[in-house]
Amino acid sequence: MPDETGAIWIPSPNYFPEREGHHPRWIIVHGTAGFTSAEEVGYFFQQANVATHYIIGRNGIVVQAVEEKHGAYGNGHVTGDVGVAGDGKHHDPWWSVKLNPNLVTISIEHVKPSLDNTDELTEAQKLASFRLIQHICERHNIPKQLASAQGGITGHYSMDPIHRWFCPGPYPWNELIDFLKR
Hints:
- The chain is an alpha/beta fold.
- The chain is 20% helix and 18% strand.
- It has a 6-stranded mixed sheet.
């Protein structure tokens, strides 16, 4: 059942039950690199061996595919060398190749029709994203900040600079932080 009020529930079987005892400390922002609606992605997650907790459509519709108490199959593995993310070679230093990042994260896809994730968020999508992130932070006591070793919010590139350096693509990080400070 949805954790977020108003979210459409399209459940996926692709998750790690009960996070294997871990708790979420980070929110990972993704871009879909294709697809046209949140519902389309939700149904895809029922068939593919992948899923995120949430999908936000261009129209602001929020779909939930995995309950927050579980770890979704959305992030893959940590790649690259330790460093500062963003150069396509280094992952942020708080990620460990010894711990599955899906166990300590809540992941949110944003529908971006372009295969290279270059689409900007729509206003409806941006507002839905900001509100969802705010609610998740409050539910799980995740710091309302850009990610650090203590937790927070970042993009998929932070842990997988080799394969997902372009994920989520453009995202209004400064606007998000300003929104969360209100």
